[in-house]
Amino acid sequence: MTHLRSVLSLALSALSLCGIAKGKPQNQLTLFVGTYTQDSPSKGIYVYRFNQDTGNFSLRSSAKAGNPSFVALSPNGNRLYAVSEFNDGRQGAYSFDFDPKTGQLSNPIFVSTKAGDRFDDPENQPGSDPCNLYTDGKCLITANYSGGDISAFKLDKQGRLQGTAQQTRFRGRDSAAVSHIHCGLPTPDGKYFLATDLGNDRIHRFDFTPSGTEVLAQPTVAFEVKRGEGPRHITFDKGGRYLYLINELGGTCVVMRYNNDQLTEMQTLMADEGGGRGSADIHISPDGKFLYTSHRLKKDGIAIFAINPQTGLLTKVGYQQTGIHPRNFTITPNGKYLLVACRDDNAIQIFRRDARTGLLTNTGKRINLGKPVCLVLRKY
């Protein structure tokens, strides 16, 4: 019996060492990268293995797609969705099956976001330039920037795209404004869906019924920012009490309290340090203690804010310069690394994150590929 225990102990030790050498499963992530393919060496979507303990990475596979500038993963992690960001008839959305064992994307399905009648503006057609996705596994919703509208698709039981879109179009709030929908997400209570309108300086609210006949209904204005601020991306805190907005043109970050269907402004502060009018993305660290925003066109970088756990208010604690034209970024689940897609550097920069201060340190590690603009992580 003693001999058997010794053998088992040695075997377990060997397996443990093997796991350390290859990277423990809990430290292995899958990184999906959306890119621009137009005027770029990129061919579409790229799939990497990323170790969130060491920051090491390796390419697993790629899949052809046209301008998949934003990608999103299904809740079960077995489907990947991507936009096709065009305004010339090729605009639409893809769904792919994903095999975590092989890292392969397969069975692409493409559905056009160009639904409904032609509008009177030939350069502002329905579904043009989809730039953002949301999915809950039952529906897929695209924010269409040039179309000034939203497309909502039903998904089949396997999560694959089907049918034509339910289309909601927004007109300008006055003769000088043109609607540009940039992103959308549901409220924490699941009752509503919010969508930012950069052109109209508004956040729209819909009744949200993913399994209903109409996915989105009864649009209304939930919040208005100062004219010319250009609301772009939003995110909720873990508790669902506060909504954080980054304004692309104004470079400001707005903190709002969410209560049922009401958004109430609590704080507005400057995030951009270069005045580039190109603020882009916004995310909260997994521990909920820090908020990050990306900024382009001048003094490209990431602004860093500490979040007051009692009030949700922000205090700016740092600004980390990055490569050229940082767009989307993501933080590893363990909070150790922040990865930034720097479009015009043709690289993804990897920063180490200090969990105590929230500050970032450039590791010098880069994933080189053509025009990366969107990053999504999946547990391996």
TrEMBL record:
Family of this protein: Belongs to the cycloisomerase 2 family.
Keywords: Carbohydrate metabolism, Glucose metabolism, Signal
Cellular component GO terms, alphabetical: cytosol
Organism: Hoylesella loescheii DSM 19665 = JCM 12249 = ATCC 15930
Signal peptide range in chain numbering: 1-21
Single GO BP term: glucose metabolic process
Gene Ontology MF terms in the entry: 6-phosphogluconolactonase activity
Official protein name in the record: 6-phosphogluconolactonase
PANTHER family reported for this sequence: 6-PHOSPHOGLUCONOLACTONASE, 6-PHOSPHOGLUCONOLACTONASE-RELATED
